[in-house]
Design a protein that fits this description.
Largest sheet: 5 strands, parallel
Number of strands: 17
Number of helices: 15
Distance between the termini: 64 Å
Shape: elongated
Strand content: 15-25%
Structural class: alpha/beta
Strand order of the largest sheet: 2-1-3-4-5
Radius of gyration: 42 Å
Bound molecules: adenosine-5'-diphosphate
């Protein structure tokens, strides 16, 4: 209370006229205050303990502090350090009978201005206070210049960053750690038809209607990387989220409408062309079969007819694979459901049994009793299983063996298809998943389009799974598919 009234009193005085005078000696306090400082126009608060001096300086910043060393040297040094760390511009003068040179040096290093030895004559005290005032002014002006320089630099950087963020064509929004908006840039405002105003402090739901976007940003812990968003301007955006330390959540939205359009166009093109190619092929096959029925053909003619039939069959396979891949890539079949992959695998094994029996190949199916469910598209997962088992049957020579396994591992569903066929050289392990890639000797082993594994990989990727092959030439191949379980997807 007393302190506050002192600070109120000095509030209207010149900034460097307030003095805290600290000493345990009432005589010193009284004589310096009454005889020297008050007559010279200073406002003086006398404080008998360091604790009170701490309180007073915690309330307001003093201009000058006169500290007598009669309060204990160690405590006084601690007080000086605290005071000057908080207010480097305070003019601090030490008073005492004497001071060790080492201590004086230490105090000066901390920022004390002067030491006045007893007896405390008027001119000695006022001169020291004058020097403290000068030192304070010098320090203040240096601090002002320095902080001006730093603030100027910071402001310039801030301005540049803001201008940059505002002008980029990608939408950018920043949320603070409490998921409140910090900024929304121009591009994003335009995409979402928002007014030009400062959205700082707004909740996401107050500004954006898009539920997908809200859900994702609200629960994002930095692990989800990219998601597709449809904005009110009719365009599609790929939204990427990242968590930035000490800033919050940053989302950038990149316009992918043209890519999507191109993708659709490509899909449409493949579909149309493939459909259009299928009808003449059916006609060719029909007429070729009619030739045989129309009358006797000689051996050579029969062999030519067989070649035409084989070519038509392989072109039909290619078209069917192209149509399949096109459908998967454009996401034509998006119905996802909870399913047990074992049902699909059992069906597929059944279907491939006939061809396997012809080649005297054994198919062994091994599955754990309690398998976790997965979320997926039945038609597409059937394609994955069919392609892998189909390839195994196709590439494994007579009397071979195929092992199909299903099990749960680290909360994921693992599906293996292993065979003891020709195997694949290590250099081709990655490439066989590319479109139209067939291993070097593949044509000697079996017919194919080189699209099967590309379709498989595209589907597995869409199901957020992984696929790879382990294979040793001459020994066999194992294809492994790992899918997230329904609980994890
Ligand atoms: P396709 O079988 O139509 O050639 P895929 O995309 O299904 O095309 O397979 C790509 C290539 O991978 C094949 O050409 C073949 O060389 C190799 N391959 C696939 N499965 C096996 C397998 N089980 N054993 C040996 N090679 C295989």
């Amino acid at each position: 209370m007393i302190l506050s009234s002192f600070w109120r009193k000095v509030a209207n005085m010149a900034n460097d006229k307030s003095i805290l005078l600290v000493s345990s000696e009432p005589k010193i306090l009284k004589s310096l205050q009454k005889k020297i400082l008050l007559p010279a126009g200073y406002a003086v608060l006398t404080l008998p303990t360091l604790e009170e001096a701490r309180q007073a300086s915690a309330e307001e910043e003093p201009a000058i502090v006169l500290l007598s060393l009669d309060l204990g040297v160690d405590d006084s040094m601690a007080f000086i350090e605290e005071l000057l760390l908080t207010y480097p511009q305070v003019g601090l003068v030490l008073l005492g009978d004497s001071i060790e040179p080492g201590l004086l040096l230490q105090a000066m290093r901390m920022g004390a201005v002067d030491f006045v030895a007893a007896p405390f004559g008027k001119s000695k005290i006022l001169e020291a206070v004058g020097r403290a005032v000068q030192a304070r002014k010098a320090m203040q002006s240096w601090l002002k210049k320095e902080s001006g320089r730093l603030t100027g630099k910071l402001n310039r950087r801030l301005y540049e960053m803001e201008a940059l963020l505002k002008q980029v064509n990608d939408g950018v929004l920043v949320l603070d750690e409490n998921k409140k908006l910090v900024m929304v840039n121009r591009a994003l405002r335009e995409s979402f038809g928002l007014d030009e105003k400062d959205y700082q402090g707004y909740a996401l739901s107050e500004v954006f209607d898009n539920q997908d976007m809200q859900d994702l940003l609200m629960r994002s812990d930095g692990s989800i990387e990219r998601v597709e968003i449809e904005a009110p301007d009719g365009k599609s955006y790929s939204m990427q989220i990242s968590i930035v330390d000490n800033v919050g959540t940053v989302a950038s939205l990149h316009d992918i409408s043209s890519l999507k359009a191109l993708d659709r166009l490509k899909g449409d093109f493949v579909n149309t062309v493939s459909h259009d190619l299928r009808s003449p092929l059916t006609a060719i096959l029909g007429y070729v079969e009619l030739i045989e029925r129309a009358g006797e053909v000689n051996k050579q003619q029969a062999s030519f007819i067989q070649r035409v039939k084989d070519s038509v069959a392989s072109t039909t396979r290619l078209i069917n694979d192209l149509l399949n891949l096109g459908r998967v890539e454009v996401g034509a079949e998006n119905d996802m459901e909870r399913l047990n992959l074992l049902d699909i695998v059992e069906d597929s094994v059944d279907v491939h049994k006939t061809r396997a029996d012809e080649k005297k190949i054994k198919i062994l199916l091994q599955a754990e009793k309690k398998l976790p469910m997965v979320v997926g598209n039945v038609t597409q997962l059937r394609q994955v299983v069919d392609n892998l088992i189909g390839n195994a049957v196709k590439y494994t020579p007579e009397a071979g063996e195929i092992r199909v396994m299903l099990r749960e591992q680290t909360k994921q569903l693992v599906f293996y298809v292993g065979d003891n066929g020709p195997g694949i050289p290590p250099a081709e392990h990655q490439r066989i998943f590319e479109k139209f890639y067939r291993a070097k000797d593949a044509h000697k082993q079996a017919q194919g389009t080189g699209l099967g594994l590309a379709i498989v990989k595209t589907i597995v990727d869409k199901h957020k799974g992984r696929i790879w092959v382990d294979s040793t030439p001459g020994k066999g191949s194992v294809f492994t598919v790992v899918l997230p379980t329904a609980e994890d997807s």
